[in-house]
């Protein structure tokens, strides 16, 4: 199944529009929402109508690619996505530490310059 990516930029997409984009059933999207906790489209009104934003569609694109295109089982797709998330968190943590160390080194250099 080919992806029908809608290039019209909208703020919100209905579940039908998103299902059509990826060639999947609406029930598949609902199931993925249960299986992938970070996939949480906005809901509105008393009937809880789903409103997918671009960030949600990017998550669905990743899940769709892993599960439907590349043939991974859902459990494997979860592991792949979670390992990428963990890696991004670790990179952010390391970057924060490096910035802190750099500030300390700059302060030490200023003290050394002052003593000379």
Question: Would you give an account of this structure?
Answer:
With 116 residues, the protein is mainly α. It folds into 2 domains: 1-71, Multidrug-efflux Transporter Regulator, Chain: A, Domain 2 (Orthogonal Bundle), CATH 1.10.1660; 73-116. 66% of the residues lie in helices and 5% in strands. The chain contains 4 helices and 2 strands. It has helices at 15-22, 26-35, 54-69, 74-115, and strands at residues 42-44, 49-51. Strands 1-2 form a two-stranded antiparallel sheet. A hairpin with a 4-residue loop joins strand 1 (42-44) and strand 2. Helix 3 crosses helix 4 (74-115). The longest helix is centred in the C-terminal third of the chain and has 42 residues, at 74-115. It starts with 14 loop residues before the first helix and ends with a helix. The model has no long low-confidence stretch (mean pLDDT 86).
Look at the structure and give the mean pLDDT. 86
Number of domains: 2
How many DSSP-defined strands? 2
Largest sheet: 2 strands, antiparallel
CATH architecture of the largest domain: Orthogonal Bundle
Terminal residue distance: 71 Å
Q: In terms of per-residue confidence, which ranges show pLDDT below 50 for 5 or more consecutive residues? A: none
Keyphrases for this structure?
single chain, 116 residues, mainly alpha, Multidrug-efflux Transporter Regulator, Chain: A, Domain 2, 2 domains, two-stranded antiparallel ribbon, 2 strands, 66% helix, elongated
